Backbone:
């Protein structure tokens, strides 16, 4: 075999082998629907695709955070609305109370105050779908409010600990976090508050309702027997209009606190809504560009495949003709 013929033979075999490999790769691309089977297919595009993938993953995490924040705010919003209704009902009851009025009316008012107390106590211990107490701060697995047996009036009992003023009987104890509202990062470097601490919502409403109820319900004696809502041993309350006015002022203060919380929640919800629109828009852009980078044009790929197959077949025929005459006829 001549050197020239041998060289032609080897180069032809290598060329056809490469063509077959290219055709196999195109078939793989068509089957997968991807332009790039490996980074070396298009290094620049692969680098850009990696950056976009990281960006899309980060944005997807923020979308999850936003949904979590949205749900937490909805839970609190619904609960705070119920708290406002309970306080408003309690306020109507307090306004109706008049010192020295018919005892039956006072007993009726006392029952309504007890119902308001119980309703607010239940709302104060609201849990979300994950079992977290929404007014416990970052101590969310601990029930924030618990009832305690009131301290006897007689004797040298120490004043109630903070956050309860010493002038009030401690009938409900707050044991949630005293600091540490929950925040969720909804955008890079942008956090939103998704909860409030119990004292910032309820203030001293439990003590207010308890004390007023006792003054309305008793006259020189204390017949209460419920350990969760019992009168202090030996108490002898006397109801006056000043007591009613004080309770009303305290309740209005709590209503103002609730209003502040409501405004904060609305602002946070608007904040989350804006972040959701922005994040989803950028995420969709990332995904569109990423898709364009890596999505195969099937029609174009099929045309290229047919073209390469035709070229390979032509090369094979030429190889057979050439090698048949040059390599075998002239050895």
Residues:
């Amino acid at each position: 075999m001549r050197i020239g013929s041998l060289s032609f033979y080897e180069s032809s075999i290598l060329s056809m082998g490469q063509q077959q490999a290219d055709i196999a790769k195109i078939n793989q691309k068509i089957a997968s629907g991807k332009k790039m089977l490996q980074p070396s297919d298009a290094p620049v595009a692969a680098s850009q695709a990696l950056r976009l993938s990281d960006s899309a993953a980060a944005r997807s995490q923020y979308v999850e955070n936003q949904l979590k924040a949205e749900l937490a705010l909805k839970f609190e919003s619904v609960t705070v609305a119920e708290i406002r209704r309970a306080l408003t009902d309690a306020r109507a009851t307090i306004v109706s109370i008049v010192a020295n009025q018919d005892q039956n009316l006072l007993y009726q008012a006392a029952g309504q105050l007890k119902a308001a107390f119980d309703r607010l106590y239940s709302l104060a211990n609201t849990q979300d779908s994950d079992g977290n107490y929404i007014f416990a701060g970052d101590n969310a697995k601990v029930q924030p409010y618990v009832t305690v047996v009131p301290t006897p009036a007689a004797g040298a009992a120490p004043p109630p600990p903070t956050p309860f003023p010493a002038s009030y009987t401690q009938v409900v104890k707050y044991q949630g976090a005293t600091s540490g509202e929950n925040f969720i990062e909804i955008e890079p470097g942008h956090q939103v508050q998704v909860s409030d601490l119990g004292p910032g919502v309820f203030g001293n409403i439990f003590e207010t309702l308890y004390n007023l109820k006792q003054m309305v319900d008793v006259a020189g004696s204390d017949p209460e027997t419920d350990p969760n809502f019992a009168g202090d041993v030996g108490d002898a309350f006397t109801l006056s209009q000043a007591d009613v006015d004080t309770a009303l002022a305290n309740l209005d203060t709590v209503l103002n606190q609730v209003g502040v919380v409501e405004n904060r929640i609305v602002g946070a919800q608007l904040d989350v809504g804006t972040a959701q629109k922005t994040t989803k828009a950028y995420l969709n852009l990332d995904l569109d560009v990423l898709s364009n980078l890596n999505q195969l044009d099937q029609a174009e790929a099929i045309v290229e495949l047919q073209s390469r197959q035709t070229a390979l077949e032509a090369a094979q025929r030429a190889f057979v003709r050439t090698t048949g005459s040059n390599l075998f006829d002239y050895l």
Remarks:
- The radius of gyration is 39 Å.
- The chain has a mean pLDDT of 76.
- The first strand starts at residue 145 and ends at 147.
